[in-house]
Amino acid sequence: MPRVTILHSPGPREVREQALDLPEGATIRDALVAAGLTPVEGEAVGVWGRKVALEEVLRTGDRVELARPLKVDPKVARRERFRRQGSRAAGLFASRRPRAKPGY
Question: Which of 9, 22, 78, 85 has the highest local Cβ count within 10 Å?
């Protein structure tokens, strides 16, 4: 009997973990049904961070992760944050040592 772990995040900064014993030959879809979860359109399903199909057969020790879709594109969020903060407060060289050369 494969023992797998199911992880999902119902909301921001909230992660739920559930360990399951499944019959031999169980798929990811079987594991999600056993955990009481159903993948919604836009949610990604993966094993150890690698995106997989719901028909993939699970092995002992697999960690199934159900990821929510992003609400904002990370590139757009970074641009908006930079626009709000300005160029002085953002970036790698924002806090320089006193009397240091530019870029250090």
Answer: 22
Measured distance CA(2)–CA(27) in Å, rounded: 11
Query: What is each CA distance from 22 to 1, 26, 72, 85, 96, in whole angstroms?
Result: 6, 6, 36, 50, 55
Q: How far apart are CA 84 and CA 87, in angstroms?
A: 9
For the entire predicted model, the pTM comes to 0.67
- At residue 93 the predicted structure's pLDDT band, cuts being 50, 70 and 90, is low
Domain assignment present for residue 72? The answer is no
Identity of the amino acid at 76 = V
How many structural domains are present in the chain?
Answer: 1
